[in-house]
Amino acid sequence: DQQVKQNSPSLSVQEGRISILNCDYTNSMFDYFLWYKKYPAEGPTFLISISSIKDKNEDGRFTVFLNKSAKHLSLHIVPSQPGDSAVYFCAASARGGGADGLTFGKGTHLIIQP
Amino acid sequence: EPEVTQTPSHQVTQMGQEVILRCVPISNHLYFYWYRQILGQKVEFLVSFYNNEISEKSEIFDDQFSVERPDGSNFTLKIRSTKLEDSAMYFCASGTAYNSPLHFGNGTRLTVT
Fold first, then answer.
1. What is the distance between the alpha carbons of residues A70 and A81, in angstroms, rounded to a whole number?
2. Which residues 70-109 of chain A have a CB within 8 Å of chain B?
3. Is B24 on the interface with A (CB under 8 A)?
4. What pLDDT, in 10s, does the model give residues A18-63?
5. Residue A91 pLDDT class (50, 70, 90 cuts)
6. Which residue of B10, B31, B43, B92 to mutate against A (max A Cβ within 10 Å)?
């Protein structure tokens, strides 16, 4: 039962271009969404989050867009840099419903090519 | 920058043995979590802990699992009798508040043989 889906296992983008990572969810109780980045042999590192009352949140090169009607969110990285090469996990929780555990997607491996 | 630390980085144990995975969360954090990632699969929530008690647990967190915060700094995950399918990367995480992003440790790779 995949409540959070990242349908692209990998994505290759040229340095300097925009990277767009997509995530879909099925649980309408989710009200808090996060993106984490993970390097090999390290734990996930928090990147950016968005509450369901917003449709966009921006932090430097990272922007997250939320489309609640489509149950879809995306992470935009612009411009992409070599250090952005990592696995990106979308995560969600139903905090308004008292469930604080995060449900993760399977991840998208982003490869930034020089 | 403060970080969540986990020990050991790799633990090998025989099936049926007990293991304790240790974590030191960030000092001013109040919410503590364990997640695991079986090789090639997604990161899965196991348990959350607040105010010295479990606040939420997943169906994975059965009677073989327990958590403890014995001394105000460590946060441990115990697996009473390990099974082969417990082999995974176990991540500890902590947060300042209920709705704050979580900070993860680098994980303990548990191998059950």
1. 29
2. 89, 91, 95, 98-107
3. no
4. 999 999 999 999 999 999 999 988 899 999 999 999 999 999 999 9
5. very high
6. B43
Torsion-angle region of residue B82: left (phi > 0), alpha (psi -120 to 50) or beta? beta
- Using CA atoms, how far apart are residues B53 and B63, in angstroms rounded to an integer? 15
| Cβ–Cβ contact A32 with B under 8 A | yes
Token readout for B27 is: 């000092």
In DSSP terms, B91 is beta-bridged to B35
CA nearest B91 in A: which residue? Answer: A43
Q: What is the pLDDT of residue A96?
A: 64
Would the CB atoms of B44 and A104 count as touching at under 8 Å?
A: yes
* Mean pLDDT (whole number) for B73-99: 93
Which residue of A59, A104, A108, A109 to mutate against B (max B Cβ within 10 Å)? Answer: A104
